[in-house]
Amino acid sequence: MAQAVELAVEDANDAAEGILLEAIRRDDKGDEAEGAKVASSLIADQAVLGIVGHYNSNVTLAVAQRYCDASMALISPIVSNPKLTDSGWNNVFRFTNRDDVTASAISNHLTAEMGKRRAVVVRTNTVYGQSMTDEFVHAFRRRGGGVVQDIAVEEGTTEFGALVGSFPKNIDLVFYGGTFEGAPLLKAMRAARVRHLLATGDGCWDGWNFLEPAGQAAEQDEGVLVLSACPEIGVVQGSREFAQRYTDRFGPLKNYAVNCYDAAAQLLEAIRLAKRANQLSRQGVISALRKSQYRGIAYPDVVNWDAKQDDIAAVTALHVVEKGRFKQIRMLARTTEKSAF
Asked: Using one digit for the tens of pLDDT, what is the confidence trace for 195-252?
């Protein structure tokens, strides 16, 4: 994802519009205290005009006020927690989709298209895990589904045999909200002959941390249904060419690189717009970003901000696993929730 930002900066510099742009990479280690140090150091550098990040929901929510106080634009490529744009920070822009929107999309598919009604829910004790799972539970119940059991596990848990053994028999679905624990949970389900579908949030739309460690279990029995807030490569014009260019430079493309490229490209465009208007300042960049309309490679439509500065163009895609790869089966627009194939 950071490498995709680097490509966006290189492309912007190749445009040669009289301003030299540089990507400064910082690692907050997924830790709120470390994130505060990173934010403070970037705010103190007057040459920094905007932020692409942070990666984790907990860190982003913890540092957003700091950037707001410094009038620093923060464009978030993947943080989906609704609080990010519900909190009133006028400098924060969410490029990706929200947990409540994606949860609504997957719940509607599970109930209306697959007839699922009784779920066990497994969530991690993380900000993302709680948000994704809470939104799923609300949406699933609104559509007539019921949650038979709701289980919280510690982040980093790898042994799920006893937990899977406690699942009630009268269920037709397991929903998992989290990231790294999805693969061992799925493997434990199949080992215990729990053949139900595993549906997950986008924390499992991940080759390294879900698809590869899950292996054949992802295609056994009812398989998996994994949502993402980004279509698969090739759906949006230009995404396949970007993926090839990225692969030639860095190796195989993973996860939300296209979101990060677009988020960075839109921020860089705002910097250029602010310069043209003789308003090249942090506040000037926020103003330009709010007005900007950008067509990128992550979403089919032009990026446009609603009143909360959420991206109206964001979509939800649903995937199964076939032949060791994610396969998109449906894409739903944020504004209409009408399916497209």
From this structure: 999 999 999 999 989 999 999 999 999 999 999 999 999 999 999 999 999 999 999 8
Count CB atoms within 10 A of the CB of residue 151: 15
Provide the pairing of β-strand 339-340 with 73-76: unpaired
282 and 71 in contact (C-beta within 8 Å)?
yes
- Supply 309's token pair: 């500065």
Spatial distance between the Cα atoms of 38 and 22, rounded to a whole number of angstroms: 17
Distance between CA atoms of residues 195 and 223, nearest Å: 8
Show Cβ contacts of residue 206 under 8 Å, excluding neighbours closer than 6 positions: 179, 254, 255
Placement of tokens 């009289």 in the chain: 18
> How many C-beta atoms lie closer than 10 Å to residue 120's C-beta?
23
Rounded (10°) CA dihedral 184, 190, 193, 197: 100
Query: How crowded is residue 305: how many other Cβ atoms within 10 Å of its Cβ?
Result: 19
Query: pLDDT of 85-116, one tens digit each?
Result: 999 999 999 999 999 999 999 999 999 999 99
Asked if the bond preceding 54 is cis, omega within 30° of 0, the reply is yes
Contacts 24+ apart (CB under 8 A), 83-90: 83/131, 84/57, 84/60, 85/308, 85/309, 85/310, 86/308, 87/61, 89/64, 89/65, 90/286, 90/309
Q: Which residues of 42-76 are buried (b: 16+ CB within 10 A; e: fewer)?
A: bbeeeeebbbbbbbbbbbbbbbbebbbebebbbbb
Number of residues assigned to the chain: 341
Q: Whole-model pTM?
A: 0.93
Residue-averaged pLDDT of the chain: 95
Q: Cα-atom radius of gyration of the chain, to the nearest Å?
A: 20
- Give pLDDT, residue 16: 67
Give, for 269, the enclosing helix (H) or strand (E): helix 257-276
